[in-house]
Specification:
There is one protein chain. With 111 residues, the protein is mainly α. It has two domains: 1-30, no CATH class; 37-105, lambda repressor-like DNA-binding domains (434 Repressor (Amino-terminal Domain)). It has six helices and two strands; from the N terminus they run H-H-H-H-H-H-E-E. The protein has helices spanning 3-20, 37-44, 48-55, 59-66, 74-85, 87-97; strands spanning 99-101, 107-109. It has a two-stranded antiparallel sheet. Strand 1 and strand 2 (107-109) form a beta hairpin. The longest helix is centred in the first third of the chain and has 18 residues, at 3-20. The protein is elongated.
């Protein structure tokens, strides 16, 4: 084990002990119970179809959210907050993730 890895593990253990002793609070992500999905999509400039396919949502589900017939679960709301805050960076990150390497060494984006 490298010294760097050891130091990261030790730092995590110290943080856990600090929380256990009541000296600090664990990190908690606040995700609002309601998000304006249509406003987030509009901010990106994408159509419903393009927004759904770009960010991995079902088109019908996106329409349900925008019409208020259902609401996204907490994980989807957190993801939507990231999209709202950094839409260009999220698109770029997803493009990088979706790159697949072919046997001949060429790279091609999927989707």
């Amino acid at each position: 084990m490298s010294k760097e890895v050891f130091n990261q593990i030790a730092e995590g253990l110290e943080e856990a002990l600090s929380v256990t002793r009541g000296e600090s609070s664990p990190y908690r992500l606040y995700v609002p119970s309601e998000v304006d999905v249509k406003a987030i999509r509009s901010k990106t400039g994408f159509s419903q179809k393009d927004f759904a396919s770009t960010f991995g949502f079902g088109l019908d589900q996106l329409k349900q959210w925008e019409q208020g017939r259902s609401r996204p679960v907490q994980a989807h709301r957190a993801y939507l907050l990231l999209i709202n805050d950094r839409p260009k960076e999220m698109v770029e990150a997803l493009r990088e993730i979706n790159m697949h390497k072919f046997d001949d060494g060429r790279r091609r984006a999927v989707g």
